Amino acid sequence: MFSEINSKFRNFCFLALGFLMPFSAAAISIFMIFTIISTLIERSSYMKIYHILHIPLYQSFLLFLLIHLAGFFWLEVDSINWHKSWMVWMIPILAVSVDREIAKKGLYAFVLGMMFAELYVYFNIFSIWKDYLNGMYGDFLLPISHIAYNPFLAVSIALLLTTLLHGKYQNFRLVISIIFLITMVVNMFMTGGRAGQVGFIFIWLAISYFYLRNNKIALFGMLFALIFILFAAWNYSPVFKTRTLEAVDQVTSFEENTNKFSNSNSENSDNSENNLKTSVGNNLKTSVGNNLKTSVGKRIHFYVHSLKLVKERPLYGYGTGSFENIYNSYAENSQTQVLKTSNPHSNHLLILVQFGIFGFLVYLNIFYQQVRSANLMPIGYEFRAVAFVLPLFFILISFYDSYIWGHHTQALFAYLTAILFRPDVYQSIKEPL
Question: CA–CA separation, 26 vs 143, rounded Å?
Fold first, then answer.
C-alpha cells in the first residue's frame, strides 16, 4: 500500500518537475528533492541504481561527484557554492526514479510547460507592444532569466523538430506541434538570450542533417528556412538586431581598447621608467574600464584572467568551490583593474580553475559518454537525434556561461539526460529492416 502511494507521489513529482522547470527555481529544488527522497526510500531502487552504475555513462556522473569530493583535499581557501552541481550527481537516481512510460511523459511535460511559458512571454510583450518596438526589453517579460530561457526554448524546439522529422505525429497533434514550433522559433528571436540563439542555429542544422542527410533537396530546404528565419529576425525583431549589433560592437571595442593599450606601450618604450609606468597604467585603466562596461567585454575579461589562474595550477586546479574566493583574491592583489565575479561565465573555465586538466577530463567524459551512448541507440529511437545534440549543445553554450552550474539549465541537463539515455526507453525498439 505504501509502495503504491509513494510511486504515485514520485510520478507526480517527476512530471511536475518537468512542467514547472521553465517557471520556478524553488519548484525545481522542491520536486527534484521529493523525487530523489521518494526513490531512495524504496528498497528496490538500490538494486536499480547498482545495475545502472555498471553503464559507463552513469559512471561518469559518479566520477564527477568523486572529483568534487577529492577537490577538498587540495583546497586552500574557503569553499563557496561547492554543491552547485548537485543535480548532475543525482542523474543515476533520477534515471531509475520512475518507469519508462512516465519518463517519456516527462519530455512532454517539459514541452507543455515551455508552451505555457512562451504564451506568458507573448502576453507580456503584446501588453507593452509599442514600448517593446521602441526598445523596451528585459527579464521582467520572461518567467526566468534570458540566460536560461532561450536555451530552454532551443531544447524545446529540438524536441518538437525531432518528433516532426521522425514522423511520429499525425492529424491534430501534427498541426499543434507545427504551430508551437513556429511560435517558439519566433519567440526565440523576440527575446534576448544570445547563447540560446546560437544554440538554436546549431540545433536546427544538426537535427536537419541527422534526418535529411540523404535527401539533399529537403536538407537545402531546411537550410533556406533557417536563412529566412535569421533574415526575418534581423529585419523585424528590434531585440535580435540590437543585441547582435551590440555584441559585434562590444567585441570590436574590446579589441580596439586592447590594441590601443599595446600601441601606447610600444610608443612609450623610449621614455623614462616612471613616465612609462604612468602612461601605460593610465591607458590600461582606460581600456579596461571601457571593456568592463559591456557584457561581452566582461566575459572576455573574466576568460582572460581565469586562464591566468589555470596556468598557475594547470594539473589539479585550486579545489572544489574555490573559484569565487581564489579569483576575487587574485582581483584584489592584481596591479591592474580586475572585476570580481562568482563564476567565470564559462562552465569549461569554471571546471579548469577548480579541478585543472585532470578534472576537466572527468568533466568532458560526461559529454563523451553521452555521445557514445547516443551512437549505440537504435535508429528507430524517436529521440536519438536529441540525445546526440544535447551534449554538443551544452558544450557550445557553456563557452558563454556556466550552464551546468546554473540552477535552471543544470536541472534541464539532468532531467533530460535521466530520460533520454535510459536503456529501457530505447532498448526495446527494433531496428528498421
Answer: 13
Q: Express each pLDDT in 245-255 by its tens digit.
A: 887 777 776 66
Q: What are the residue ranges spanned by the domains of the chain?
A: 2-240+352-426, 241-351
| Distance in angstroms (rounded) separating the CA atoms of residues 133 and 356 | 46
Answer whether 201's CB lies under 8 Å from 229's CB. Answer: no
Task: Summarize pLDDT for 322-372 with one digit per residue, the tens.
Answer: 999 999 999 999 888 889 999 999 999 999 999 999 999 999 999 999 999
* pLDDT exceeds cutoff 70 at 433: no
First to last CA, the chain: 44
In whole angstroms, give the CA distance from residue 121 to residue 68.
Answer: 38
Neighbours of 242 (CB within 10 A): 13
For CA atoms 349, 53, 409, 322, the dihedral sign is: negative
Q: Compute the distance between CA of residue 302 and CA of residue 323 in angstroms, rounded to an integer.
A: 12
> Helical H runs in 237-379?
238-267, 273-291, 295-312, 323-333, 347-376
CB-CB contact of 386 with 81 (8 Å): no
> Which of 55-59, 131-135, 148-152, 252-256 is least confident?
252-256
321 backbone φψ class: left, alpha, beta (φ>0; ψ -120 to 50): left
CA distance 296 to 306: 15
Nearest by Cα to 404 from 358, 364, 357: 364
Distance between CA atoms of 279 and 147, rounded to whole angstroms? 39
How far is residue 431's CA from residue 219's CA, in Å, rounded to a whole number? 24
